[in-house]
Amino acid sequence: MISEKMQKALNDQINAEMFSSYLYLSMAAYLESENWNGMAAWMKAQSSEEYTHAMKLYHYINEVEGKVTLETIEKPKTTWNSPLEVFEEAHKHELYISDRINKLVALAIQENDYATNLFLNWFVTEQVEEVSTVSQIVHKFKLIGDNKTSLFLLDRELGMRASK
Ligand code: OFO
């Protein structure tokens, strides 16, 4: 059994992961409207991944005989000034999610909930990877600056993710 407090916190995290999915889909829609189809494909893949994160929590709550409660998903932003701005915001968002995961781990420890603590380990590792991946992309954008040819190549490179 899971405590009410832990259950509420995990349900809130389902909402945060669903918002991540929605936000990245909105970023994809913006990028697609600007004809950056490779970057948009990357964001769509990221959006699907976020949905799987939400579902991992969903399954876990049920496994420990808790109750999943879904709440309203906040409306994401719909427009940005440049692809760089999009990826910078994605990076900031992943840092925020990492912080949320850390707080969940702290709560699990405080509650002596070893099973949830162990379950959350996967998310801790995943967040390190997500932050690092987006950070590397932001770095590439900064190196490229306004060079159209390089931006075109980066668009193509990011688009490869969808076909993997
Ligand atoms: Fe679910 O890892 Fe990103 O937000």
From TrEMBL:
<dbReference type="InterPro" id="IPR009078">
    <property type="entry name" value="Ferritin-like_SF"/>
</dbReference>
<dbReference type="InterPro" id="IPR041719">
    <property type="entry name" value="Ferritin_prok"/>
</dbReference>
<keyword id="KW-0560">Oxidoreductase</keyword>
<dbReference type="GO" id="GO:0008198">
    <property type="term" value="F:ferrous iron binding"/>
</dbReference>
<feature type="binding site">
    <location>
        <position position="50"/>
    </location>
    <ligand>
        <name>Fe cation</name>
    </ligand>
</feature>
<keyword id="KW-0409">Iron storage</keyword>
<feature type="domain" description="Ferritin-like diiron">
    <location>
        <begin position="1"/>
        <end position="145"/>
    </location>
</feature>
<keyword id="KW-0963">Cytoplasm</keyword>
<dbReference type="InterPro" id="IPR001519">
    <property type="entry name" value="Ferritin"/>
</dbReference>
<feature type="binding site">
    <location>
        <position position="17"/>
    </location>
    <ligand>
        <name>Fe cation</name>
    </ligand>
</feature>
<dbReference type="GO" id="GO:0005829">
    <property type="term" value="C:cytosol"/>
</dbReference>
<dbReference type="Pfam" id="PF00210">
    <property type="entry name" value="Ferritin"/>
</dbReference>
<protein>
    <recommendedName>
        <fullName>Ferritin</fullName>
        <ecNumber>1.16.3.2</ecNumber>
    </recommendedName>
</protein>
<keyword id="KW-0479">Metal-binding</keyword>
<dbReference type="InterPro" id="IPR008331">
    <property type="entry name" value="Ferritin_DPS_dom"/>
</dbReference>
<dbReference type="InterPro" id="IPR012347">
    <property type="entry name" value="Ferritin-like"/>
</dbReference>
<keyword id="KW-0408">Iron</keyword>
<dbReference type="GO" id="GO:0006879">
    <property type="term" value="P:intracellular iron ion homeostasis"/>
</dbReference>
<comment type="function">
    <text>Iron-storage protein.</text>
</comment>
<dbReference type="GO" id="GO:0008199">
    <property type="term" value="F:ferric iron binding"/>
</dbReference>
<dbReference type="InterPro" id="IPR009040">
    <property type="entry name" value="Ferritin-like_diiron"/>
</dbReference>
<dbReference type="GO" id="GO:0004322">
    <property type="term" value="F:ferroxidase activity"/>
</dbReference>
<feature type="binding site">
    <location>
        <position position="127"/>
    </location>
    <ligand>
        <name>Fe cation</name>
    </ligand>
</feature>
<dbReference type="GO" id="GO:0042802">
    <property type="term" value="F:identical protein binding"/>
</dbReference>
<feature type="binding site">
    <location>
        <position position="53"/>
    </location>
    <ligand>
        <name>Fe cation</name>
    </ligand>
</feature>
<dbReference type="GO" id="GO:0006826">
    <property type="term" value="P:iron ion transport"/>
</dbReference>
<comment type="similarity">
    <text>Belongs to the ferritin family. Prokaryotic subfamily.</text>
</comment>
<feature type="binding site">
    <location>
        <position position="94"/>
    </location>
    <ligand>
        <name>Fe cation</name>
    </ligand>
</feature>
